[in-house]
């Protein structure tokens, strides 16, 4: 079975209707380099489906994020969100404060059971997202870095 079919089956098991728009958004996420914006996804999709609107892309990305099919990554210092399919193990992201690139931290350093013990009964943890901000190797090597966070 293909990766697309695996994702569609996962959506079906969660009770989600598979619309043509959702299918092409997933196909575009599979095709593009990692971490496209909603506008980049929309532009890619419009090459074969010119009628799709940016609102439709945003609305479906929101649903796919809420269902755990897509990860939303918030880039620091920008009003930009980028997206990736939530494939494989749960993981987090490293985001460069200088160039804005995001890369995967291939494991999760967060122990939700320990966090749940800390917050006790006042809050039920059902998931988490962690984005780490700093400087990539290329930007760290530059001598004219912006002032680092303190």
What is the structure about, briefly put?
About 40% of the residues lie in helices and about 15% in strands. The chain folds into 2 domains: about 1-85, Winged helix-like DNA-binding domain superfamily/Winged helix DNA-binding domain (Arc Repressor Mutant, subunit A); about 90-150, 2-Layer Sandwich (Dna Ligase, domain 1), CATH 3.30.1490.
Write the layout of secondary structure elements.
Blueprint: H1 3-13, H2 20-31, H3 38-46, H4 54-66, E1 70-75, E2 80-85, E3 92-96, E4 102-105, H5 112-119, E5 131-134, H6 137-141
Parallel strand pairs: 3-5
Antiparallel strand pairs: 1-2, 3-4
Helix pairs in contact: 1-2, 2-3, 3-4
Report what the structure shows.
It is a single chain. With 150 residues, the chain is an alpha+beta fold. The chain folds into two domains: 1-86, Winged helix-like DNA-binding domain superfamily/Winged helix DNA-binding domain (Arc Repressor Mutant, subunit A, Orthogonal Bundle); 89-150, Dna Ligase, domain 1 (2-Layer Sandwich). Helices cover 39% and strands 17% of the residues. It is built from six helices and five strands, in the order ααααββββαβα. The protein has helices at 3-13, 20-31, 38-46, 54-66, 112-119, 137-141; strands at 70-75, 80-85, 92-96, 102-105, 131-134. A three-stranded mixed beta sheet has the order 4-3-5, with no helix packed on it. The chain has a two-stranded antiparallel ribbon with strand order 1-2. α2 crosses α3. The protein is globular and about 45 Å long. The termini are far apart. The mean pLDDT is 88.
């Amino acid at each position: 079975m293909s990766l697309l079919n695996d994702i569609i089956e996962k959506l079906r098991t969660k009770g989600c209707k598979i619309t043509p728009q959702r299918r092409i958004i997933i196909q575009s996420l599979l095709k593009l380099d990692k971490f496209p914006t909603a506008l980049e996804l929309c532009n890619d999709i419009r090459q074969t489906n010119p009628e799709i609107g940016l609102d439709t892309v945003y609305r479906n990305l929101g649903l796919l994020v809420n269902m755990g099919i897509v990860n939303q990554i918030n880039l620091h210092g920008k009003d930009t969100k980028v997206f990736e399919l939530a494939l494989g193990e749960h993981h987090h992201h490293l985001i460069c404060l200088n160039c804005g690139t995001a890369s995967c931290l291939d494991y999760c350093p967060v122990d939700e059971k320990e966090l749940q013990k800390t917050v006790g009964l006042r809050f039920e943890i059902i998931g988490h997202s962690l984005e780490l901000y700093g400087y990539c190797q290329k930007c760290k090597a530059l001598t004219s870095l912006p002032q680092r966070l303190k």
